[in-house]
Amino acid sequence: MSSASVKKVVVDTMNQDLAKRLERMGISQDITCSQPPKDNLDRAKKQLDFADELISGTVKNDFLNALGTVINYMSEAIFVVNGNGVFEMINPLAAQLFGAPREALIGQQWCDFLGHQHKDEYLSLFVSWKKCHELPSNHGPKEVVIHRADSLLLDVDLSLSCLPASQTGSENLFIGVMHNLTTHKAEYHELKRQARTDRLTGLANRHEFDEMLQTSWNDSINGHQPLSLVIIDVDYFKLFNDRYGHVNGDRCLQKIAQVVEKALPSRQCLAARYGGEEFALILPNCNARTAELTAKRVQAAINQLSFTDLGLHPSVRVSVSQGIAVEVLGQYRTPTALVCAADTALYRAKSDGRNRINLSL
Ligand SMILES: Nc1nc2c(ncn2[C@@H]2O[C@H](COP(=O)(O)OP(=O)(O)OP(=O)(O)O)[C@@H](O)[C@H]2O)c(=O)[nH]1
Question: Model pTM?
Answer without folding.
Answer: 0.71
